[in-house]
Amino acid sequence: MSQIPHYFIILSEHNIAEYRACLDLRPQNVHLIVTGWIAGKKRTHPFQKHARAKRTI
Length: 57
What we know:
The chain is an alpha+beta fold. The chain has three helices and two strands, in the order βαβαα. α1 links the parallel β1 and β2.
């Protein structure tokens, strides 16, 4: 099976499980597109910390 070079996921309240499922495919790169629903959550997720740091630069 050939390796997938890029895997894009639009994260939302409906498909967070897709992120977990794509890890079984072991892509070289996973690109997360974060929706307002995820970004507006009070819980701090590692992806949010990274996105917040990139915005402040």
